[in-house]
Amino acid sequence: MTAPKRPLRADARRNREAVLDAAGELFAQRGDAVQMDEIAERAGLGVGTLYRHFADKQALLAAIIGRRFEAMTTLARAADEAEDPWAAFETLLYGYLESAQADAAFRFALLGPEEPSWNDIAAEKTDFSAITERIVQRAVDAGRLREDFRADDFVLVTRGAMANMTGAGGWRRHVTLLLEGIRSPER
Amino acid sequence: MTAPKRPLRADARRNREAVLDAAGELFAQRGDAVQMDEIAERAGLGVGTLYRHFADKQALLAAIIGRRFEAMTTLARAADEAEDPWAAFETLLYGYLESAQADAAFRFALLGPEEPSWNDIAAEKTDFSAITERIVQRAVDAGRLREDFRADDFVLVTRGAMANMTGAGGWRRHVTLLLEGIRSPER
DNA sequence: CCATAACCTGAACCTGAACTCCGGTTCCGA
DNA sequence: TCGGAACCGGAGTTCAGGTTCAGGTTATGG
Question: Which intervals of the chain form a coiled coil (chains A, B) (predicted)?
Fold first, then answer.
């Protein structure tokens, strides 16, 4: 479907990369709010060129999000290397959240409702989910996470933390509360 | 500042109320996304009339949010009546979150960054915060909430839960995790 | 070095949604 | 009952921002 009949012309490939870079940086910074003209200018190109490579703004955003998801999968794979299950879990959790903090577009994609145009990303998402599931399971089996903790809960936790990323960065506190519980220890 | 020189004319007051009702319902349902024309139609009025009563969309939204905050303050006051500090806390927490679930506009105001136009609401917000602070402190003093729990943490917790309100309602699970902690009980 | 297909540019265009404006209507005090 | 201030309606205006396209440019195979 995305099979290119012929390899892209040299300048076209270069420009495509420039667009991706510019968009990546701007989206990360201000999320959905950046406008196409800005991206074009930052990339040193005309708007028309953006539209030659991406059908519309959504498609461009989707491409960026896809990239981030690949990075996330790499990170998850790395975390899974750790022998200590808890270390693996923490590495994944904090790595994920730090990336989210650094990238407004990523948060946008993760916090908003499911967009139909995100479909291209389904594959990357699935990969990531699989690894996450394994890491979570390992931590549970090792008795470091509550018995009934599931991969879905990982999503809940991260969404919760991401919601506390605007303004003062209270998200670490939020994660701490989540880890240790709100209630008094001695019950 | 909002002091009306003369009491509003009868039809004006009636219409103002109709606008508030229509806007309240639609905003609660679809948040910021509703358009002025819709509100006017639902209220059985022309758009012009909306603008006679509210400077712009922001102002109308702010008025609605203000209402919700008053309701929230009432709820908090009621919760504070309970003798049991933990009961008071739970009543406040779940009451707050259930209201948030029922009202997209409320979530919008609470999840988004601070808007300058929200300033009119500062007063209601302060009232609510004061009561919340008292309830939290009571629960801490009674040894039911962790020593270092502060009113700010209440905000973190609620933001986290609200972020999990889109789609399947996983927010209750999120709150449970928060209350009990993610980690295995026996450490 | 050509021919030509692929590519680029950016001003113009289009759309949707907030907001305005003024002729017509309604309420209210005297 | 009447004058006029306050109010209402909703078509039309404005504006921001995404998208297009005619005309010029450039890479590439032969």
Answer: none
